[in-house]
Design goal:
This protein is mainly alpha-helical. 63% of the residues lie in helices and 0% in strands. Helix 1 crosses helix 4, helix 1 packs parallel to helix 5 and helix 5 crosses helix 6.
Length: 142
């Protein structure tokens, strides 16, 4: 069985247009969901450790695979710094999308690819589990 990791996944064929408007709409909804989760993660990364609830800290793995134990707050702050460019690009495309700007299918596919990998890395899951992880993050806010 082939193991999926965020570093070994090839990006989708960005030149492939969405085949239907329903597919495009589903992709837009996915990007908005991912962006809300990324926004919450970056806000959490900026909070001092003593302001984190136990629920928030327990959602994150205590280390990266094969790495030493690391407090979740420190790990998430490092994640936000490391992925700042990807987060900015994803946010820019999301903003154009929701504010009526033109977003090509290739840009939307690329933003979803970035967002899935950014969320997966923060949450210590596979990119295929990014939607579930995003929903877990969103539940922290409620």
């Amino acid at each position: 069985m082939r193991r999926e990791s965020s570093l070994s996944l090839q990006p989708p064929d960005l030149s492939e247009p969405y085949s239907t408007e329903a597919d495009r709409a589903g992709a837009r909804e996915a990007l908005v969901l991912y962006w809300f989760a990324i926004e919450l993660l970056t806000k959490l990364a900026q909070q001092p450790a003593d302001q984190w609830s136990n629920k928030q800290a327990n959602v994150f793995p205590s280390s990266v695979p094969g790495g030493p134990p690391e407090p979740p707050q420190q790990r998430l702050a490092r994640w936000a710094n490391l992925y700042s460019d990807e987060i900015r690009i994803t946010g820019d495309i999301r903003n154009r999308l929701v504010h009526g700007g033109l977003v090509a299918d290739s840009e939307l596919r690329g933003a979803i690819y970035l967002a899935r990998n950014v969320i997966a890395t923060a949450m210590g899951v596979l990119p295929s589990q990014a939607e579930s992880a995003a929903r877990t993050v969103l539940a922290l806010a409620s």
